[in-house]
Here is the input.
Amino acid sequence: MFIDKMEEKTKEDRNFFYDDFSDRLFVSCKTKNDKVAGSVRILNIILDFTADMKIVNVELTRASEYLSSLKINPEILSNLENAELFVQKYNNGYLIYFILQSKGVIERIPFNIPVKRKMLVMS
Here is the structure.
């Protein structure tokens, strides 16, 4: 199994933001040298990637609704202290995990992207 931890970036390089008005969670692992070459929307997730297909930004729309569907209290979004991404190749697709931290609580939020053929290359 392939795991791209993306946590090798310094804390200053990691960016995250939750907009409660539009209910969107944005997490970035983009460095100064990364250039976004394109984006793809799959269900309620938007992936930004570089020319070599490395995922650098992930946006989850209807984030509180999605967390609620997983029986996770969406209040964690309003008080985020840290957010990270893990991307894992799994069978015929990818798993994206949002690791959210708020007030001593850490939640691992999975998002499954099934694909029929390889579409992303993680570095």
Remarks:
- The first helix runs from residue 63 to 69.
- Residues 3-114 form one domain.
